[in-house]
């Protein structure tokens, strides 16, 4: 099998409007779809970030049931030239960086939380090369 990418990633949330405010307004991801009481989906580059209300999908009838609780993690990739600009932009918007990590070959990434306690990370292109 030859995969090209992870097309969608899912986080579980408790408030669609708060998710929209954070992911659309703060992180500047376009909204693709919103279904009251169930989900909101965002465009993230060529991928999609799905944000579901866990209690709405836990007992799903039309699709396989799915849900999660706790501190989920997603890393968002930016170009190397935009890494510091992205960090600065988030700091200006009042986002607290909870950790910065130096990886191999002196590459850096930084972590911050969304309003639901999920652990988000910004990584530069090439961090896994």
- Low confidence ranges: none
The strand count comes to 8
Helix content: 10-25%
Instruction: Tell me, briefly, the overall form.
Output: globular
Number of domains as seen in the coordinates: 2
How is the biggest beta sheet arranged? 4 strands, mixed
Count of alpha and pi helical runs: 3
Adjacency order of strands in the biggest sheet: 1-4-3-2
The overall average pLDDT, rounded, is 96
* C-alpha end-to-end distance: 20 Å
CATH class of the largest domain: Alpha Beta
What would you call the structural class? alpha/beta
Q: What's the gyration radius in Å?
A: 15 Å
Instruction: Write the CATH fold name of the largest domain.
Output: 2,3-Dihydroxybiphenyl 1,2-Dioxygenase, domain 1
Instruction: Give the full name of the CATH homologous superfamily of the largest domain.
Output: 2,3-Dihydroxybiphenyl 1,2-Dioxygenase, domain 1
Q: State the order of secondary-structure elements, H for helix, E for strand.
A: EHEEEHEHEEE
Indicate the proportion of strand residues. Answer: 35-45%
Q: Could you explain the architecture of this structure?
A:
19% of the residues lie in helices and 37% in strands. The chain has three helices and eight strands. It has helices at residues 16-26, 54-57, 83-92, and strands spanning 8-13, 31-35, 39-44, 47-53, 73-78, 97-102, 108-113, 119-124. Strand 2 and strand 3 form a beta hairpin. The mean pLDDT is 96. The strands form two sheets. The chain has a four-stranded mixed beta sheet with strand order 1-4-3-2. By secondary structure, the protein is of the alpha/beta class. The protein folds into two domains: 1-60, Roll (2,3-Dihydroxybiphenyl 1,2-Dioxygenase, domain 1); 70-129, 2,3-Dihydroxybiphenyl 1,2-Dioxygenase, domain 1 (Roll), CATH 3.10.180.
């Amino acid at each position: 099998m030859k995969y090209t990418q992870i097309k969608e990633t899912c986080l579980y949330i408790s408030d669609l409007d708060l998710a929209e405010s954070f992911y659309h307004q703060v992180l500047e991801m376009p909204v693709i779809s919103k279904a009251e009481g169930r989900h909101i989906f965002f465009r993230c580059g060529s991928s999609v970030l799905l944000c579901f209300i866990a209690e709405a999908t836990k007992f799903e009838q039309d699709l396989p049931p799915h849900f999660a609780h706790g501190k989920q993690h997603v890393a968002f990739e930016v170009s190397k030239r935009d890494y510091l600009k992205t960090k600065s932009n988030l700091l200006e918007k009042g986002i607290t960086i909870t950790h910065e990590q130096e990886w191999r070959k002196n590459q850096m990434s930084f972590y911050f939380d969304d309003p639901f306690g999920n652990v988000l990370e910004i990584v530069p292109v090439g961090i896994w090369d």
